[in-house]
Amino acid sequence: MTRLSAEIVPVTPFQQNCCILFDDTSKEGVVVDPGGDVERILAAIDRLGIAVEAIWLTHGHIDHAGGAMDLRDAIGAEIVGPHKADAMLLSRLEDQARMFGLEGAVRNCVPDRWLAEGETLQIGTHAFEVLHAPGHSPGHVVFFQRAAQFLHAGDVLFAGSIGRTDLPGGDHATLLASIRTKILPLGDDVGFICGHGPGSRLGVERRTNPFLV
Ligand SMILES: [Zn+2]
Ligand SMILES: [Zn+2]
User: Fold this and answer.
1) Considering its fold, how many domains does the chain have in total?
2) Ligand 1 centroid – CA 40 distance (Å)
């Protein structure tokens, strides 16, 4: 039984948790949400000796997707996801960047393929279920590995907080519905990594997160 590891590389002024998920033994891996600082992501890939098979995107915000095209050009791996409902956001990343004073560091993104609810992605022998969890953005997806009880939650759920919904396409009621009907039912024991700050467990958030209790 091979083990899956996660290496976090904080990127962009938003301190986004770019995440390299990889098999400890085979060193097959993916990069989730390369928002920027691509040189640092490449250095981590090199240091860990990872053969990157794909770039997975949780959603179309600059801090998650802004470096995806540069990383694809550098390593030749396909960009997979998010759900096509974020196509508009991804086509306007350079506009988002100008709003935050980050022009030049970000490129508009065209994924090689979109993801839909219920698809399965692989890292070597490790299967990840794709769940469409809109609300923070219309096309947000999360990646769940049932065998390891591990979730990559993107910006849907944080330790002690939830995703903001004041950005274009955000909707608070939709986000709460995604968390209640799709995320929490995965089980209290599920540990998760999120887009910003430390991870947590779903049971801890169900009991103590002020936005959910
Ligand atoms: Zn976001
Ligand atoms: Zn974010």
Assistant:
1) 1
2) 21
Ligand nearest to the CA of 195: 2
Q: State the residue for tokens 């998760």.
A: 192
| Inside any domain, residue 60 | yes
Give the integer Cα–Cα distance in Å for 100 and 187. 37
Nearest CA-CA partner of 81 in 90, 70, 92: 90
CATH number, domain of 20, equals 3.60.15.10
The 10 Å Cβ neighbour count of residue 25 is 11
64 CA from centroid of ligand 2 (Å): 6
Report the relative pairing of strands 191-193 and 200-201 from DSSP bridges: antiparallel
Task: Look at residue 57 and tell me if it is in a domain.
Answer: yes
Q: Which domain holds residue 51?
A: 4-208
CA of 152 to the centre of ligand 2 (A): 13
Residue by residue, pLDDT tens for the chain (213 residues) are: 689 999 999 999 999 999 999 999 999 999 999 999 999 999 999 999 999 999 999 999 999 999 999 999 999 999 999 999 999 999 999 998 998 888 888 999 999 999 999 999 999 999 999 999 999 999 999 999 999 999 999 999 999 999 999 988 999 999 999 999 999 999 999 999 999 999 999 999 999 999 998
Distance from the alpha carbon of residue 51 to the mean position of ligand 1, in angstroms: 27
Domain assignment present for residue 213? The answer is: no
Measured in Å, residue 195 CA sits from the centre of ligand 2 at 5
